[in-house]
Amino acid sequence: MIGIDLGTTNSCVAIVENGTPSVIPNRGGYKTTPSMVAVTEAGKRLVGHIAKRQAITNAENTVYAAKRLIGRKWNSPQVKNAVATSSYRIVEGPHHDVRIVLRDKEYSVPEISAMVLQEMKIIAEDYLGETVSKAVVTVPAYFNDNQRQATKDAGEIAGLDVIRIINEPTAAALSYGFGRNMEKVVAVYDFGGGTFDISILEIGAHGVFKVIATAGDTFLGGEDVDARIIDWLVQGFKEEHNLDLRQDRMALQRLKDAAEKAKCELSSVKETEVNLPFIISSGRNEALHLQKTLTRQTLEELSDDLIERTVDICRQTLEDAKLEKDEIEEVVLVGGMTRMPKIQSAVATFFEREPCKGVHPDEVVALGAAIQGAALMDDKQEMVLLDVTPHALGIMTFGSIFEELIPQNTTVPTHRTKIFTTSRDNQTAVKILVMQGESTNAEENELLGEFILTGLRRAPKGTVEIEVTFEINADGIVSVRAKDLETGLEQSIQVTATSGLTRDEIKGMIENAKDDVVDRRSSEEFEAAKQEAEKIVGEIEKLFPQVEQIVASSDFGRDAIEKARAIVERARQAIVKKDVAAIKEQIDGLTRTHRMFKGVVAKT
Ligand code: AMP
User: Fold this and answer.
1) Nearest CA to ligand 1 atom 15
2) Residue range 173-193, pLDDT digits in tens
3) Which CATH superfamily is 393-495 part of?
4) Among this protein's residues, is 304 annotated catalytic?
5) What is the pLDDT of residue 604?
6) Nearest Cα to 169, choosing from 376, 32, 325, 313?
7) Distance CA 597, CA 604 (A)
8) Binding site membership of 261 for ligand 1 (Cβ less than 6 Å)
9) Which fold has domain 509-603?
């Protein structure tokens, strides 16, 4: 049994061994693995660090942040936004769902997420030396039913029995409270690569974890901060050179990389240099460089409103929980973005207390998932997790009114029943539209599914009574039943994600995914890293004479050439020493050098 934090940017896998939870490092020794998937020109599938490293040179066939798309419908604003800003191609699928095109083949989003889950499964299996088949997987607390179902589908495709889906902030609280036997009200502030979540929990004696309220924004994350830096760089470059870097896909990818790197650096230093040699051609046979200093203060100004949005959500959640700030006894920070000093201080200012420093923001969620997994396997473990539904659930009634059955923040599992009547004379059928959301206008909420109850007795309107029962299980997944009270006629559905996959499709994907594992396991890690490094070295070597000729006249150029030679040399040494970690480390530098060289040659 493993716990997996399937993150937007990075994923992490953990396990409880002899009562102690720990994160399992991947083969490169890293505790987190990029949630990235790529297909190479030769048709090889890459996942994790190896996919990230080649992202810039193979941008169109490299998927990042697939979690932002999971369980969403094609026509949703979030998908439209992703279509406009992603470097990979997103198209409409057969069920108004979303498909991603890699090397002319269409993949569903659960299939892409399955590749990441499968990688996490392999990491655990390599470590444990045995097959792993069961997992607890985390999702943002604010995920709706469609997104949860799609995540479960992803687990199934990856060959994992997802025994429970739990909310990320709840997992973080489990990890924080594990073994401490405390009684405390805790706020978990989770700001990751793609999503923001806040949950307020009560940790009770004897291991009872009760969520009081939860809220969030599934389209607010570190990537939005990166986008602000990119805008700033693009704008500055435009003012200086009157050229739009956005027109150049490769330049944009390099900017994206540089923006994230600068953002992370500014968490520990006050200013940093963004340095992208030969970013674009001036059009007059001359390559231009981007060199700009970004200060922590500028970054804070650029991201101020995004941080403020998270604070607003915290304020609202406290209100929903009917708690005052001083009733929160601990604030736990989760997610890579909480390393940003401005975020830490904004949280401290709002909650009027310093956040807890004792948990590792990247690992705490996976650890919590593993703890929950262990508790589910072991009857003796005295741990009770009471989570809540993040969205209200109800049905659409006459006139597009949303009739709520289960309010937001109700403890799950739960079920509620309500009686409805027909709205027309002699009505023999009713259509039940199951919806999730907070708006009183049904059309503004998420449609989860629909079904028709037929064969009603003919009678004047308002006289036929239909009993509708909603049930939410411990995974947060919904089922609905409708019953004609007079005839006893009943219809029910397990609400399957309307944007999801059919059973047959999932079956086919499971088979494909199995083939892939056989392929991956047979390849030796050293050989793969060596081949990759040697290939790039070869290409750099080819370009050296040409590049030297072009740039030798400037100090900047000579410096770049020298650095390139040093990187190539280090890579060679690492290959000789058969040091896999060192080769991988050099591949990053080699890739950057190669890209820069190609830029120089192409732009002059
Ligand atoms: P997560 O989804 O929790 O893995 O968080 C990933 C996000 O955290 C990405 O947007 C990263 O760029 C960001 N991140 C990681 N490390 C840092 C850091 N030191 N400072 C600021 N942001 C960071």
Assistant:
1) 336
2) 999 998 888 899 999 999 988
3) Substrate Binding Domain Of DNAk; Chain A, domain 1 (2.60.34.10)
4) no
5) 62
6) 313
7) 11
8) no
9) Butyryl-CoA Dehydrogenase, subunit A; domain 3 (1.20.140)
